[in-house]
């Protein structure tokens, strides 16, 4: 049973009721719990999140820091001490951070070391909202508050009566600089700490301005007091500035940073201007309510609303902005590829292996104006590095497999995103699809084998080769779709269409599953379908067999027809949660999360299998999709510190929840279809940026009534198991007739099935 760790901010203490449409956005931020998923550790992820105190897609996030400097697990719900408040750009604990520095208010003895300055705290005296954070630091009798903008933030420290009030500014190690300017009540500096993906000249420049005179200043060089100076360059530089305060006196600070220059950091303070703390907080709240307000819910339980809007918040954080505005308001960015300052947009901190599946289709549906900037930024990625990043943080990183930038680019264009340079982006896709990159996770490792044999062999020392093959085949499908839309030459279109069928080369008729294959055409031996890793990526054959997003009918045919296909789907849920971890030499957290979920071998905590419950729709049994999606929604997500069933992963696992709670899901990005499930709420309204609405009515929806007995679209009976993007974009009203028993006649015909590259056999 899930623990019931509820973090109840004062703004949550309201009676749940329908959210009514208003001229001003409703206060939907009240439902968001930024602490959802923070009760995690390397051995077991309940989200591996941290409370990101930020604006949507903001360049800088802020977070309370419980972990030691350099730990990817910088905030853990189970911790009882805080070491500081860190500016962070961390997309994942596994990827760690860059551009980071920390502040910490203290009283009494002046100290600098993170352990010496740490303070006990309690979640009972902690408030976490998307745009606001407050906590009481018991050892120092100080309340700290944070209200961010996209590139700046306001801090408010409420001190006791003391002549020994201080704020520590820690620029961290690995090369940093701090300078104190007492006459200006200012501290400036830079930090270079990172975990890769940056050029040699990488720096994050920061500036802090206080509203109180300093009564004392002290600088630290490699944790030792540096006397007689107001400026320090060191491996580990920092400063402590002092104040004399009355009881309850507030010391305010404005802080901003820049990847471009110290002068740009000063310019970024303009985001605050002369607004006081409360005004900045209110501005941030309004920004969140505006983006959250694109989906309004009616009905549902309090926990369901909290879970939904907490997941929606997580879906609107990454990829983050890496661009800044110069003195003339022009968009500029520091290039994490070549270290130059260049014009144009750039976003970063996302892994396409995760987010191509649902997060980017979600942006295309409801936030196309944001993905327009992201796509323009991807063109800049290619211009500046020669490649599209498959995992960016902030530059190219050697993580995961596949070439899924193809899906991200193709789906955006096919869903109507415009303004990006498609000549550059199409060149980037075909370049990446036909060449090995500078890293094994960039371009396509094993591409020569793939082009010659139709698969990446198991026995040529290219890891996770079957996963690569399956993802390359899907990515080739997305290029095929884009090539058609761009009227590319027929020969080119046919090439990618043919390569999209390479998944067939790994299907083993003997086991009915995907299996690694040797260079000579024989299958890997021995073969254990429960073995994680090896030929696959963070999963086993039971998980990756379904990675044929674009041709489910082709997979049905390979398995011997719909009956065998459905039986194999069923088996994933009915198998015991057995596993073989020998490839890793230990039970990795993804395995453990599958084992404890009590859903057989279904591993929802990791991405490869998240679309699998929707595949029953292709075989004429949509009621099984409705059953298993509802099971995942209600059993695997809670609005609590242990609220996810694995890594949240930059919005992907959250976007799965948001889509699925609405009643449909993008099984195959780069097509125009969403595959139907069943809505979770009695009513949801999508406010499209065009001004049109998609209304999803399910008035009889309940915990018992999880099945779709009937569906009308704009008043007409609708018997398909999918919705088209174009129909939704025109505005639509869907009425779901929900029932406690499955309707085994609706959606059973071959004509009801969603798109597959291979047509159903008559």
Automatic annotation (TrEMBL):
Write down the required cofactor(s).
Answer: Ca(2+)
Q: Name one GO biological process term.
A: carbohydrate metabolic process
Q: What is its EC number?
A: 3.2.1.-
Q: What is the recorded name of this protein?
A: GH92 family glycosyl hydrolase
Q: Please tell me whether the keyword Glycoprotein is annotated for this protein.
A: no
How does it associate, per the subunit comment? Monomer.
Q: Which PANTHER family match?
A: PEPTIDE N-GLYCANASE PNGASE -RELATED, PUTATIVE-RELATED
**Gene Ontology MF terms in the entry:** carbohydrate binding; hydrolase activity, acting on glycosyl bonds; peptide-N4-(N-acetyl-beta-glucosaminyl)asparagine amidase activity
Q: Which GO terms describe its cellular component?
A: cytosol
**Enzyme group, top EC level?**
hydrolase
Q: Where is the Glycosyl hydrolase family domain?
A: 264-739
Residue ranges with Polar residues bias: 739-751
Region Disordered, residue ranges: 739-762
Q: Which residues form the Glycosyl hydrolase family 92 N-terminal domain?
A: 31-258
The signal peptide, as residue positions, is: 1-21
InterPro entries in the cross-refs:
6-hairpin_glycosidase_sf (IPR008928), GH-type_carb-bd (IPR014718), GH92_a_mannosidase_put (IPR005887), GH92_N (IPR041371), Glyco_hydro_92 (IPR012939), PNGase (IPR050883)
Record's keyword terms, sorted: Calcium, Glycosidase, Hydrolase, Signal
Q: Which domain of life is it from?
A: Bacteria
Q: Name one Pfam family in it.
A: Glyco_hydro_92N
């Amino acid at each position: 049973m899930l623990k019931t760790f509820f973090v109840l901010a004062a703004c949550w203490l309201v009676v749940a009721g329908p959210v009514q449409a208003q001229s001003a956005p409703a206060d939907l931020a009240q439902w968001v719990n930024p602490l959802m998923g923070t009760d995690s550790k390397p051995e077991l992820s309940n989200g591996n999140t941290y409370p990101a105190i930020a604006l949507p897609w903001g360049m800088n996030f802020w977070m309370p820091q419980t972990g030691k400097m350099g730990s990817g697990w910088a905030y853990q719900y189970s911790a009882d001490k805080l070491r500081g408040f860190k500016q962070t750009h961390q997309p994942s604990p596994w990827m760690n951070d860059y551009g980071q520095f920390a502040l910490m208010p203290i009283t009494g003895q002046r100290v600098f070391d993170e352990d010496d300055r740490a303070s006990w705290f309690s979640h009972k005296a902690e408030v976490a909202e998307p745009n606001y954070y407050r906590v009481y630091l018991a050892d120092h009798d100080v309340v700290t508050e944070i209200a961010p903008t996209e590139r700046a933030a306001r801090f408010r420290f409420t001190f006791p009566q003391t002549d020994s009030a201080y704020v520590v500014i820690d620029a961290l190690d690995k090369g940093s600089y701090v300078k104190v300017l007492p006459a200006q009540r200012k501290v400036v500096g830079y930090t270079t700490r990172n975990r890769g993906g940056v050029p040699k000249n990488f720096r994050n420049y920061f500036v802090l301005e206080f509203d109180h005179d300093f009564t004392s200043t002290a600088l630290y060089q490699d944790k030792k007091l540096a006397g007689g100076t107001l400026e320090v360059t060191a491996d580990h530089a920092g400063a402590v500035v002092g104040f004399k305060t009355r009881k309850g006196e507030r010391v305010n600070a404005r802080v901003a940073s820049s990847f471009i220059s110290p002068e740009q950091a000063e310019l970024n303070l303009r985001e605050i201007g002369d607004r006081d703390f409360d005004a900045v907080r209110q501005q941030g709240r309004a920004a969140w309510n505006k983006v959250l307000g694109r989906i309004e819910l009616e009905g549902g339980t309090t926990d369901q609303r909290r879970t939904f809007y907490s997941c929606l918040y997580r879906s609107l954080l990454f990829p983050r902005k890496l661009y800044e505005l110069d003195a003339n308001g022009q968009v500029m960015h520091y290039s994490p590829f070549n270290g130059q300052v260049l014009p144009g947009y750039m976003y970063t901190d996302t892994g396409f292996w995760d987010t191509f599946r649902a997060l980017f289709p979600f942006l295309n549906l409801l936030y196309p104006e944001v993905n327009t900037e992201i796509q323009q930024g991807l063109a800049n990625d290619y211009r500046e590095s020669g490649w599209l990043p498959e995992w960016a943080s902030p530059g190219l990183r050697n993580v995961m497999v596949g070439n899924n930038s193809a899906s991200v680019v193709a789906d955006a264009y096919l869903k109507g995103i415009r303004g990006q340079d498609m000549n550059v982006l199409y060149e980037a896709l075909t370049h990446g699809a036909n060449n090995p990159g500078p890293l094994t996770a960039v371009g396509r490792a094993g591409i020569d084998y793939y082009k010659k044999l139709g698969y990446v062999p198991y026995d040529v020392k290219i890891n996770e080769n079957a996963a690569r093959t399956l993802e390359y085949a899907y990515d080739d499908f997305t290029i095929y779709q884009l090539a058609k839309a761009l009227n590319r030459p027929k020969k080119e279109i046919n090439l990618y269409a043919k390569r999209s069928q390479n998944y067939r080369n790994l299907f083993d008729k003997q086991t009915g599953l995907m299996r690694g294959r040797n260079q000579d055409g024989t299958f890997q031996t021995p073969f254990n379908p429960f073995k994680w890793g090896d030929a696959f990526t963070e999963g086993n054959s039971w998980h990756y067999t379904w990675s044929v997003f674009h041709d489910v009918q082709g997979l049905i045919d390979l398995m011997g027809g719909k009956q065998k296909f459905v039986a194999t789907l069923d088996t994933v849920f009915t198998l015991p949660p057995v596993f073989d971890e020998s490839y890793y030499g230990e039970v990795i957290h993804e395995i453990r999360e599958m084992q404890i979920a009590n859903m057989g071998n279904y591993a929802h905590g990791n991405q490869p299998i998240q679309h699998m419950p929707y595949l029953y729709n292709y075989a004429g049994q949509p009621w099984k999709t409705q059953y298993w999606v509802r099971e995942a929604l209600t059993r695997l997500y809670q609005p609590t510190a242990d609220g996810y069933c694995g890594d949240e992963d930059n919005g992907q696992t959250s976007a799965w929840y948001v889509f699925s709670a609405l009643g449909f899901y993008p099984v195959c990005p780069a097509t125009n279809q969403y595959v139907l499930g069943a809505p979770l709420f009695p009513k949801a309204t999508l406010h499209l940026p065009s001004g049109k609405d998609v209304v999803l009515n399910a008035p009889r929806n309940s915990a018992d009534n999880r099945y779709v007995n009937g569906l009308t679209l704009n008043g007409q009976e609708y018997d398909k198991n999918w919705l088209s993007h174009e129909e939704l974009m025109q505005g639509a009203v869907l009425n779901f007739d929900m029932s406690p028993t499955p309707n085994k006649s609706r959606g059973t015909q071959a004509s009801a099935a969603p798109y597959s590259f291979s047509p159903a056999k008559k």
